[in-house]
Amino acid sequence: MAEKVQHTPQSRPAVATVTTIAPTGGWVTVARFYHLLIALVGTVTLVTTLTVAMTAENNGGALNGAVFSLSYFTIWSNILTMVVTWWLVARPTADSAMFRWLRLTTLVMITVTGLVYAIVLAPLADPQGINVYTNAGLHYFVPWTTVLGFLLFGPRPRFRVVDVWKMLIIPVIWLAYTLLRGLLLVTPPVNQQELDQTGPQHWYPYPFIDAEEPSALVPGLEYPGYAGVGVNIFFILLLGLFFGFLFLGLDRLLSGGRKPPPLPGAPSAGAPEPNDAASQAPASQALPTQETKPAHDTTADQDQQGPTNT
After folding, report:
1. What is the residue extent of each domain of the chain?
2. Nearest Cα residue to 18 out of 262, 270, 266
3. Alpha-carbon torsion 17, 82, 120, 149, what sign?
4. Angle, alpha carbons 75-152-25 (nearest 5°)
5. Is 70 exceeded by the pLDDT of residue 275?
6. 1: helix, strand or coil
7. pLDDT tens digits for 179-232?
8. Residue 84 in 3-state DSSP?
């Protein structure tokens, strides 16, 4: 009689689970309250900033005031940081592809905001009235408490090398928007106009990306027009990559060298997909999912083999 072949079920690789080194235990509650403090202060600061911009005298209207306020990199970085911070309030151990990207992006953007303001822009600034407090919130409180929160509570491990390059997406979008908008003639609010200009003008939020007369970020590297803007953007992107890899290194160091595990549903590096073995095998060698008994022609067997002794 034909020998019966028994097929064993194909083993499947275990699905990796996301682990969090920090925060754990009671530190999850501490982290939640810490992020809540940042989220409340940052949100109130943003709402106040936009309200002042929309209601100020000679602002060209509420919409015009809002658009100009929302054109600053500082506002972009603070808004995105608030999105991630409220996310951490809801879930201090959050993890997903979107979270990893936004967390690293906002860490870099808010750090650059704090540093560039303190080193380059603060000597030129002269906030008045309530702007003294909103300026402190946007440029000092939110940036440095956010970085401290990352160091204390993570969550980690979360970052990979690919996340560093993806981190550049939003800053590059902001740069493109700023340079394209600068080509237009617009009428900024009085408090944001150039000292020697009134009425419609080519407006840029920061002097180092002003295509008409860019100031040099690096002493000695001052060029006119877009050449100067290009040099400044090059160094800004280098600074962003530096901080991106710095936060990646800190994430790995503070995690004891651990890398972020694959997200649920994503195969680990080098591991086959659950059906890889069956899909890669030739059709003649594919393993059946159920045992089947092929039809057997006993008459043909007897003709070929003769009588069979049992």
Report:
1. 27-254
2. 262
3. negative
4. 120
5. no
6. coil
7. 999 888 787 776 666 555 666 778 888 888 888 888 888 888 888 889 999 999
8. helix
